[in-house]
Automatic annotation (TrEMBL):
It comes from Lacticaseibacillus thailandensis DSM 22698 = JCM 13996. This is Fe-S cluster assembly ABC-type transport system, permease component. PANTHER family: PROTEIN ABCI7, CHLOROPLASTIC. It comes from the Bacteria. It holds the Pfam family SUFBD_core. SUPFAM superfamilies: Stabilizer of iron transporter SufD (SSF101960). InterPro entries: Fe-S_cluster_assembly_SufBD, SUF_FeS_clus_asmbl_SufBD_core, SUF_FeS_clus_asmbl_SufBD_sf.
Amino acid sequence: MAFWPAVPKFNWERALRPAPAPATGQPHVTVTAGIQVAAAGTAPTPHDRLAAQLIQAGPSLTVTVPAHTVHGRVTITGSATQGGVINLQVGAGATVHIAETWRGQASGQTRLLVSLTLAADAQVDYQTYDLYGDTAVVIERRVTCGANSQLTWRSASFGHHAGILYHAVDLVGDGAQAQANMAVLAGGHARLTATTAVTNAATNTQGLINQHGVITDHAQLILNGIGHILLGARGSDAQQENRVLMLSPHALGEANPLLLIDENDVTAGHAASVAAVDEHQLWYFLSRGVARPVALRLVLRGFLLALLPDSMSKALRDEIQQLIEVQLNG
């Protein structure tokens, strides 16, 4: 492919300069009956130059959910040294829950490419958790949605990792719908660029982006939301909200909402803010006898966890809350 993903004020070739971490194998995958896993699957066709680079990162894995599967489940668990390529195919009319969790750190740059394809009328609850330590990451996840398919994507990126996190959704079938939530907590000296991009390429499609970021210590976070309605995608809707809270005078944050509209018969909107914690919210707790440090943590936990699913296991929720506490404590 001739182009890199369109991310404001970012140099892809510079981001890919560090040496990748050596692959130590494939992630652990568990599935319900009927879902097929091929350990030596075929890598997806790259959409852009970034994907073409990441395909070389390591072994590929293909997971196939047959058409009309009911309440299927796919769980993927990996470490920072188990990057590579994951190709997920969901058949027509299937309903499936897919959860990815990545942990740990690597001496080199962790590289990961995930491609998820939804056939017509498929419904997918997609959850991704990037809980890396002090490491460098380049991650691209791309979802392609067929006609009348529905995607609910909730992602969390908590840690001291630096680099690029790029989530893309292509609504290529008429009536496709996607809601993409991203919660990011950047600490230490991390330099992280997190982007969610939704492209409305067919008629009557709906794309919603909701991103919350919190920055502590000396970290820097650029939070991009990109909604693109292509010519011919009549009756489509693109909405987004990007919010960043900075907890340190040394932190740097940006919230960049971008709308690219090539069609007239559509609706679109965006909101963005970069600010400190709302003193009115803190006053609500303080007036009821809650100490300020505790009040601050309650506000921030609610700000981040509001975008994540209630269906998380207790162990995972406890782990995420512990990560929040560690970073808020510096």
